[in-house]
Amino acid sequence: xxxxxxxxxxxxxxxxxxQKQMAASLGVSAAYLSALEHGKRxxxxxxxxxxxxxxxxxxxxxxEELQRLALNSDPRVVVDTxxxxxxATALANLLARRISSLDADEIxxxxxxxxRPARR
Length: 120
Known about the structure:
Layout: H1 3-15, H2 19-26, H3 30-38, H4 46-56, H5 60-71, H6 86-98, H7 104-114
């Protein structure tokens, strides 16, 4: 599951609608919506994201949060380390190999470490 998919599911359930009902309102298939919620589908298009924001009638901060979550929810990430030091390539490969074995606390700790402002 992706951060966007998780939030989408929470919002849909809070509204008390099924995937089928929401999909019909958005003009997509229930299979697409399910894949989006489960992170088996790539990022929604900007137009689809706007439809979702309109569907839930969210404004300002909530809309920005959904957009931020969508941008951070690509389930197939490519890390280009060309031109970076060898350690960067080693780190990217290590993370790719080990990410599925990390627990939630380890993921949160790594994310917090990497989310700090960059040093110059």
